[in-house]
Amino acid sequence: VTLKGHVERPGGFAWRSGMRVTDIIQSAEELLPFPDLNVALIEREIQPTREKTVLTFNLGEALKNPASPENVELKTRDKLYVFNFETPRNDQLEELVERLKVQANKQLRKQTVNVSGHVRFPGEYPLNPGMSAKDMVILAGGLTQNAYGLRGEITRITYSETEEQSIEHLNVDLANSGRTAPKEEDQLQIKRLPNWLDQETVTIEGEVKFPGQYKIKRGETLAQVVE
Fold first, then answer.
1. pTM of the full predicted structure?
2. Alpha-carbon distance 19 to 75, whole Å?
3. Do 158 and 166 touch, CB atoms closer than 8 A?
4. Which of 94, 107, 205, 219 has the highest Cβ tally under 10 A?
5. Distance in angstroms (rounded) separating the CA atoms of residues 26 and 197
């Protein structure tokens, strides 16, 4: 079993029957600073073809409660990825995503989902068939400060029995767990809060009592700022 990512001691571990995540990561002290405990990912091979599949789980819950289902039982040749809130995780998973693309064919569509918009790390991610839309947002690092957290949108390409292509747009209720399950090659978009404005500032210099940088509100005039 291979441990990768935001950990003190990455590398290989001898697999044994019944081994679980906490047999490799016993506490949060074995992680580097600022880990993302909301999600970790397991890259797994399907035998005998050795095709790739993925599992995701809540690392924090696994460490807190080793008896929980989040403490996933590991299989031989598993790769376990741990993330943080500073490094783009789609870069860490790039090789896995490329492998999923290579193994796609007419019967097995590409097992990836594209997450765009106002998440911490937009990009293309491997798809776990059991994932919800909210799980995909968590895998992409979570919502940004200006994200609209109530609803997202999935764009899905489907094919009829005659192989005619059609596109549909599905609203996703993120506030109520976002249980709508993404499918292969879906695009999940997270929109920005309506009327969101980044905080604007002006700098006052020269012959004033208190020069410096000041936040301004909409409609404020020069005279008001100087005052």
1. 0.82
2. 8
3. yes
4. 94
5. 43
